[in-house]
Design goal:
The complex is a heterodimer of chains A (about 120) and B (about 110).
Chain A: E1 4-6, E2 10-13, E3 19-25, E4 31-38, E5 42-49, E6 56-57, E7 64-70, E8 73-78, E9 87-94, E10 105-106, E11 110-114
Parallel strand pairs in A: 2-11
Antiparallel strand pairs in A: 1-3, 3-8, 4-5, 4-9, 5-6, 7-8, 9-10, 9-11
Chain B: E1 4-6, E2 11-14, E3 19-25, E4 32-38, E5 45-51, E6 54-58, E7 61-66, E8 71-76, E9 85-92, E10 100-101, E11 105-110
Parallel strand pairs in B: 2-11
Antiparallel strand pairs in B: 1-3, 3-8, 4-5, 4-9, 6-7, 7-8, 9-10, 9-11
The chains are: A mainly beta (about 120), B mainly beta (about 110).
Chain lengths: ~120, ~110
C-alpha cells in the first residue's frame, strides 16, 4: 500500500512566522503535490513536482514555496504566514505515466491554524 | 462554472440502502475519473479509478462514467454506517495534466 506521511496532524502558528509542512512518501513516486482544502472550495492545487529539484506552480501558489531535495520528500513553505492561510493542507503522490494516468494517493493532512 | 460539480449534501440514508452519488463535469478532454472517500479529519482515500466510459465494480461499489453526458456516478450497495464520509469525484485528461476535484458530497448512513 502507498504510504504518504505528513509530519504534523495539527499545527498552530502566529501571523508572520515562516512555516514548514513536510511530506514523505514510501512508494518511489516521481510526482508529488500540495493542496489546500477549504469548505465549499474543495481541493486546490498549490504546487507540484515531477522530479527532484523540480517544481511547478498550481492554481494558488501565492504566499507559498516548495522544496524537493530528495525524491521521497516534498516540503511546503509559508514564507510569512497569514490568517487566510488557515486551512487543511494535503500532500499527495503518484507515479508518472507519460501517456496515461496514475491516481494520486493522499496523506492524512495537516490542519494548520494561523493566529 | 466549476469544472467538476457535486451536490454537497448531506445525503442521509438508512443502513442497507443503495446510495447513488453523482458528479457532472465540463471538460470534454477528461478521460480518467476517480472517486475518493474522505473520513472526518483524514485525507482522501482512493476508492475507484476508471478510464473512459463504462462501469467498474469493486465489491459493494460501482463507478459509472457516461462521457456523452459528462456524468459520473458512484453506487454503493448495502450501505453501512462505516460508509458515512465525504465522497469526492475527480477527473483529468491523462499524462501530466492536473486532476480536478469536486467539492464532495457528505453521506450519512443511519443504523
Amino acid at each position: 500500500d502507498v504510504k504518504v506521511t505528513q509530519s504534523s496532524r495539527y499545527l498552530v502558528k502566529r501571523t508572520g512566522e515562516k512555516v514548514f509542512l513536510e511530506c514523505v512518501q514510501d512508494m518511489d513516486h516521481e510526482n508529488m503535490f500540495w493542496y489546500r482544502q477549504d469548505p465549499g472550495l474543495g481541493l486546490r492545487l498549490i504546487y507540484f513536482s515531477y522530479d527532484v529539484k523540480m517544481k511547478e506552480k498550481g492554481d494558488i501558489p501565492e504566499g507559498y514555496s516548495v522544496s524537493r531535495e530528495k525524491k521521497e520528500r516534498f516540503s511546503l513553505i509559508l514564507e510569512s504566514a497569514s490568517t487566510n492561510q488557515t486551512s487543511m493542507y494535503l500532500c499527495a503522490s503518484s507515479s508518472p505515466q507519460r501517456n496515461s494516468n496514475q491516481p494520486q494517493h493522499f496523506g492524512d493532512g495537516t490542519r494548520l491554524s494561523i493566529l | 462554472q466549476k469544472e467538476v460539480e457535486q451536490d454537497p449534501g448531506p445525503l442521509s440514508v438508512p443502513e442497507g440502502a443503495i446510495v447513488s452519488l453523482n458528479c457532472t463535469y465540463s471538460n470534454s478532454a477528461f478521460q480518467y475519473f476517480m472517486w475518493y472517500r474522505q473520513y472526518s479529519r483524514k485525507g482522501p482515500e482512493l476508492l475507484m479509478y476508471t478510464y473512459s466510459s463504462g462501469n467498474k465494480e469493486d465489491g459493494r461499489f460501482t463507478a459509472q462514467v457516461d462521457k456523452s453526458s459528462k456524468y459520473i456516478s458512484l453506487f454503493i450497495r448495502d450501505s453501512q454506517p462505516s460508509d458515512s464520509a465525504t465522497y469526492l469525484c475527480a477527473g483529468n485528461s491523462g499524462g501530466y495534466q492536473k486532476v480536478t476535484f469536486g467539492t464532495g458530497t457528505k453521506l450519512q448512513v443511519i443504523p
